[in-house]
Amino acid sequence: MNRYLFLCVSVFFAAITVLPMTATASWQPEITIGLSQDVSEVRLSATSGTLYVYDDPEKEPMMKIPQGREFAVRMMQDRFLANEKELKGERFVIQPESTGFVQVNGIPYRGFITLLKKPRGMTVINNVPVEDYLYGVVPKEMPSNWPADALCAQSVAARTFALKNRKRHSEEGFDLCNTSHCQVYEGMSAEMQTTTEAVNNTRGEVLFYKGAIIDALFHTDSGGMTESSENVWGSSVPYLRAVTETQMQTQPWNRSISMASFVQKIEADGKILGTLREIRLSPLLIGKGSEDRTPSGRVRSMEFIGSKGRVILSGNDLRSMFSLPSTLFHVRYGNSEIIFNGYGSGHGLGLSQWGAKTLADQRKNYKDILFHYYTGVTLEKLY
User: Fold this and answer.
1) Nearest 5°: CA angle at 128, between 112 and 198?
2) Which tens digits make up the pLDDT trace of 276-285?
3) Angle, CA of 215, 221 and 223, to the nearest 5°
4) pTM (two decimals)
5) Contact 348, 328 (CB under 8 A)
6) How far, in Å, CA of 310 to CA of 313, rounded?
C-alpha cells in the first residue's frame, strides 16, 4: 500500500504555523476531506486495476476487489456489511493500485478513501495530497475559462486556506468538508486543464503574515470595495483590510420582500414592530462610512420604527434573514413591500474573485493580485 507519512506531515504543520519556509521538499502534505457523513451505504470501485481494503494499514490487505467489481459497503444495526458479509472494525482504508483511482458512487477521486463507523452511519473521507485536492477545488471556486493569473491567484488562496484550516472538522474525523463551508470539492470529475495548470504553476506557494499562514478568505465580488475583518467578524486581522477596486457598483442585485413577510420575520424571535412606519439608514456611498455604515459603505446597522416599537438589526443579520447577496445595499419601501438594492456577492473579506478577473484582464500578474487583496503578506514556496 502506498501510505502517506502522517507523523511527518503533523510535524511539518507544527513548524509552518510558526515560521515561513523557503526550502523546497520532494513531497507534499496530505489533507483529509469529508465527502459524506451519516450515510448508510457507499459503492466503491477502481477506474483500473485492483482495490485493496485494509483494516490496519500496517498489515496486509484483508480484501482485494478486482477491476470491474464493486465494493458495496452498508451499515446495518451498527455493523459494517461489505458485499453482504460482516466486516469487523471501526475504520477501513480503500487503496487503488498506482495505475488507477477510487470511484465513490461512480465519481473518481485521487488518493485513497477511509470509511469510519459513526453512531448514525458512515463517514466517507478522501485522503489526498494537497495539490491533487486543489485540482478538484479551483474549477469549482472560479470559472476555468477566466484569465490564467486570476486562476493562479485563486489557486494560492485556496491552498493557503486549506493549510490554515486543517482540522476544521477534526471532531468529525477529517480536516475539511467538501462544501462552501470550507471549499467546494468534487474530485476528478471537476478537473479542467486550465485550472490544473494554475495549480501546477503555483505548486507549494502559500501566503504568510509575519511567519504564520494567513486565513486566505475570498468571496465572489466586493461590489467596489472589500471589507476590513472587524466589520464582519468583530476582530481586527491585519492582512484583511478594506481595499478599493478598479470598478465600482459591480454585480448589482435587488430583492423584493412583501411587507407582511418582512414584519413576520422581524418579529419571529420576540421583537415587537407592528406596522412599519420608518426605516433609518444612511444613503449608500461606496467607500464612505457613517455611524450605521462601515467605511466601505456596507450596512453596519439599520433601525426599523413601527407602530408598536422599534427594532435595530445588523447588516449581517439582515443578510442572513433574507438571503441577501451582500451587506452593501440600500432600502426603500412602500405599502406592500420592502425592496433591497445592492452590489457584490459575499462577505467582502480578502480576495474578490470578480475583482481578480478584472485585474488579470488589466495584465496584473497573480502575485500583484494577491498583494492587492491581502495586506502586508509574503508569498513563500513551502515545497
Assistant:
1) 135
2) 999 999 999 9
3) 120
4) 0.89
5) yes
6) 10
